[in-house]
Design a protein that fits this description.
Layout lengths: L6 E5 L5 H15 L7 E3 L7 H7 L4 E5 L2 E5 L5 E2 L5 H10 L5 H9 L6 E5 L6 H9 L3 E7 L2 H14 L2 H4 L2 E5 L2 H7 L6 E5 L11 H6 L16 E7 L4 H4 L3 E3 L6 E7 L9
Parallel strand pairs: 1-2, 1-3, 6-7, 6-9, 7-8, 9-10
Antiparallel strand pairs: 3-4, 4-5, 10-12, 11-12
Helix pairs in contact: 3-5
Length: 268
Amino acid sequence: MNTVTKVRLTTAVKTNASLYKQVEDAFDMLKSNLNIKDVCIVERKKLTITQLFAVDQSPVIVFLSNGPKLYFSPRVPIYFHLDTTKVKINMQKENNQPILIDMLNHIQHPQQSFHFVDGTMGFGRDSYLVLNSFPNVVVYSIEQNPLIHFVISEGMKRALTEDVLKRIYFINDDYNHWIKRNSEKVNILYLDHMFEETMNPDDRMGELSKHINSNKCMDLSNSYETLILKAHYKSPLFKQFNVFQCIRKSSKTHYGLRRNKRKNSSLI
């Protein structure tokens, strides 16, 4: 688990009562997180993000009308945005399934109830896509960094309807630890470790990867029914997790699959 020494909360330069309320609510929520040592509210005034970091290097969460943004530095914010997920959803309208969804369709019937554990939530896009694609799925979206967990989950809540929100649980924990304690909930475990091969250290993915530490050495072999791994094609994780690597000659992103036989399995 990541431990945060200090985080500052503030509003947009042009603020209102709603944004102040969001800051106050976030203060209470983050203050109760044992992995965050200090939470403080700072008055934005007309300070730029760069000026906020000139006096204090601790992370800043800025509350805006379209959701919170997290700054570990003044350069690149982390926040929830659908980005390429919109493209994938449009692909589905033309019956062209994204790889993850296609794999899930081959594992169980689209209308079947199942639990999908996204062990590496990151920006939350895969969790959102699975929720959007399977009407009876329950998603457990896990992120170990408490600040990333907060801004992504709060941002995603704005993009989901009340009914869909009932089918997702946002969890601030290390996926290894959570899965060991909750193996009975894990039908399909999904791990996306593409961030380990960071493309550009100065973009949002690069910024995200700097603040995520993943313990990949624990034995999860009996803690799931199906494992789907996404990683760089040269990643040692395919052998480490003992998954079948699905070769994609035209892409550096490969997927791996492993099935376990467990008693009382709810899948197939």
